[in-house]
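Run folding on both entries below.
>entry_1
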Amino acid sequence: MFDRYEAGEQAVLVHIEFPNEGDREDLQELEMLVSSAGVNALTIVQGSRQSPHAKFFVGSGKAEEIAEIVKIHDADVIIFNHELSPSQERNLEAICKCRVLDRTSLILDIFAQRARTHEGKLQVELAQLRHISTRLIRGWTHLERQKGGIGLRGPGETQLETDRRLIRGKIKNILKRLEKVAKQREQGRRARNRNEIPTVSLVGYTNAGKSTLFNRITDSDVYAADQLFATLDPTLRKIEVPDLGSTILADTVGFIRHLPHDLVAAFKSTLAETREADLQLHVVDVADARRQENIEQVQDVLREIDADDVPQLLVYNKIDLVEEISPRIDRNDEGRPIRVWLSAQTGVGCELLLQAIGECLAEQMFDENMCIPPKLGRLQGALYRLNAVQKESFDEHGNWLLDVRLPMSDWQRLKKEFGEQITELVV
C-alpha cells in the first residue's frame, strides 16, 4: 500500500510524445497543472513512442529509468501527462516503489482543492468516485486473493466487493442531491426567462482571464489568479447593457485539453448555464502562442455538452501584453460583432464589449409594433403572459396597438401556435 498523494509533495513528471495528434498532450500545460496543484516538480522525464506500452505505458526500459530517477531524487509521487489504465498504474507503482498519478487524477485533485460551494464539492466528489471505482483493486494487492476450497478464501476480494458496493451507494446518493440542485437551477433559469432577462455565459480555455473580465464588468470580487482552474463554481451577476437593460452574466469553469469525461459528466448541471445561455462570450488569451489550438479545444468541449449551437462572440483578452494591438470591435459582412479586442486587467476596451453584447442580443429580440384586432384577444393575452408588452393603446376601430419586445425564440413559438399570418399584424 502507498500513502495517498497530497498537495505539496515532490514529484517526477513524465511526458511522452506520440505521432498521433489525438494522443498528444502539452508539456507546458502539465507544468501549469502541477504548479496549480501545489506540487514541487523535481525533474521531467521525456521520451517518444509510436503507441503506449500495454504494461508500463512507457516501455520497460523507460520504466526502469523512471524508477532510478525516483530513487535518486527521493520523490514522493510520479505524475504522468497522460491517462493511464489501472493496470499500468499498478505495474509502474510496483517497479518504481512510488505512488503514480495520471493526468486525470491530477486534474481531479486540483478540482477538489478549488471547489467551494456545496454543488461544486458534490460534483468533484462524484467525478472522483467514478474514477476511483476503476482502480480499487490497486489498494488491496497486499491482501490475499479469494481462493477455492474450505479455509482458503482470503479477505481481498470480499473487501473489494464491499468497497465497490459502498462507492455505488455513495454515487447514487450524490446523483440524487445533484438532481435536486439542478432542479433549483432550472427554476432560476425559468424565472429569468419569465422576466425576460437574457443570460450571457463566459466560456474559454482555463487561465484565459474569464474571472478577471467578470470582475471588471460586474464590479465583483470573484477569485481570479494566474493558475489553471482558479474558478470552478458558477457565479451569476446582473449587469446593465446599453440599449438593452438588465442581463445576467455567468462565469463558469474553464476548459482544458482532454478534459476528463468524468468531470464533464459531473459538471453537466453547472455547464447547463453555458448550454442555456442566449450568448456565449468565448474569452481567448491573445498573448498565448497556442490560442488557435485553445479555441478548438473549447469548441470540442462545447460540442460534448451540446452547447455548440449557442450564438458566440469572441473576446480577445490580454491585449496589454501584446504590442500594437488596440481595443476594437471586428464585424462580419452583415455588420454583426464577431470579435472584441480588450484587456480585462486594465479595463481598456470593456465598454466596447458591452456595446457588442447589446448588439448581439438585440438581434435575438423581436422588437416591433403590432396592431391586433379584438378577435385575436388570445394572442394579446399570450403576449402579456410572456411580459412582452411594453406599451398599449387603441385605435378608432378598437384594435390593440402594442409595443412588443420578446426573445426571438418566443416569437417563433407564437408563430407556430397562431400561424404565420400574425406577421401581418406587425406595423
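>entry_2
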Amino acid sequence: MGSLKTAFNIVPAPKSDIPITTQRKRWLREFMKTYAVLIIGYGGFYLLRTNFKSAQPFLRDQLGLTTTQLGTIGFGFSLTYGFGGLILGFFADGHNTKKIISALLIASGVVAITIGITLAVTHNPYGYLILLWSLTGLLQSPGGPCCNSTMNRWTPRKYRGRFIGWWNASHNLGAMAAGALALWGANTFFHGSVVGFFVVPALVAIPIGIWGLFFGKDDPIELGWDKPEVIFGEPQAKADVVTQQVSKGRILMDYVVKNPAIWFLCIANVAAYVVRIGIDNWNVLYTKSELGFSDYTAVNTTIALEIGGLLGSLCWGFFSDRLGGRRALTAAIGLALVVVPIFVYAHATTPTVVYAALFFIGFLIFGPVTLIGISVIGFAPKTATVVVNAVPRAFGYVFGDSIAKVLLGRIADPKKQGLEIFGHSLHGWGSTFTVLFVSAGVGLVCLVAVALFEERMIRADREFSKEHPAADAGISEGADDE
C-alpha cells in the first residue's frame, strides 16, 4: 500500500531560478500538456459511462430487462459514485490527481470488458450488472474532483472559470462519441449484440489511460516553478493562506460542515442533476418508445444534447470570469432559462424540434452543473479541493441522479402505477417533466442564496489581501506583464 501511495505522490523539482516573466510565457504550453490529459482522459470516462444509456433499449429488447430494473442498475452507479467520491477523494487530496485519473480510467475499462463478457455468457445478468455497474461508479467517482484539483493548482482565479468550463466539454465530447461508438462497435464487431456496447469503448479508453500516466505534470512545482498566483500577479485566497498547517479533518469541518453555502450548493446540485440526468438518461428510450423514432434517430438525440452542452461548457465558465468570478450568479441565470426548452421538448413530436430543444437544454443546464463545481472549490483551500468538490457531487449523484433514474424510471414505467406525492398522482412521461420543472425552481432559489455568500467571500479576499500583503509576497514582479 505504501508503494502504491508513493506512485501517486507529487514530486517537486528543485526550485528553479527561472524568472516569473519566463514562467508566465511558458505556462500555457506546459499547462496544455496536463490539460490534454484531463480533457481526453475524462472524456474516456464518459465513453465507459454514457454507453450504458445508449445500451438501455438493447438491454431491454435483447435481455428482457425492464425500465425499473434499468433504473435500479443506474442507481447502483449513482450510489457508489456519490459516496466513493468522498472516500477516495480524501485519499486523492495532496496526491498526483492526474495519475490517479489515468489509473482509474484503465481500471474502468477492465470492468467494462468484464461486463461485456458477463452479458455474453449469462442469461440473467441483472444482479451482475448491478454489481459491476456499481463498481464502475466507484472507480469513476473521484474523476471530476481530481481534474478540478489539478486545474486548481495550475490556474489563477481570473482564468479558472474558463479553463474548468472548457474542460467540462470533455463530458460532452465523450458522451457524443459514446453512443455512436458503442452502436457502431456492436453492429460492426458483435452482429448487433449489446455486448459490443461495453467492450468496444473499453478498448479505446484503456490506451488513453496508459498515455495519461506519463504525459504532463500535475502541479507547477513539479517543474520547480512558483504557484500560479505568483506567476500571474494575483492575490492568494484567504483560505489558502490561513490553512497551510491545518489538517484535512479540520478543513472539512470548518469549510464544509459549518459552511451554509456548501449545503445550498449541495441542494442546488441535486436539482441541477435531476434536470440534467432526467433528460440525459432517458432521452434515447423516450424518443424511441414514446415518439417512435428509429434506433439511429433516437441514439442521435444524445448528440444534439451534448453539442449544446459542449457549447455551454465552453461559454459559461468564461461568462463567470467576466462577472468577476461570480459562479453562483451565472449558474442561476442558466437554471432559470432552461425551463423554456424543457417545455418545448415535452411537447415536441418531430426529430427537428426534439433535436433543437435538446440542444438548448444542453447549452443551458451544463452551465449550472459546471459552475456549481467551480463555485464550491472557491469556498475551500486548494489542499482540500477533491474532498470539498466531492461533497455536492455526492449529493448530486446519490439524490439527484437516483431521482432522475429510479424515481423518473418508475414514474415513466407503463407496467407500474407511478407515485403518489402530496395527493398528486405522478405517472407517465408527462409527469416526469413536472418533476424537472419543480427541480429547476428549487435549484434557482438555492443558487441565488449562494450568490450572496459568494459576493461576501470575494470582497473578504480583497480585504485580506490589503491587510496582509506578506501573503502575496513575490507577486508584484511582472504583475502588469500579461
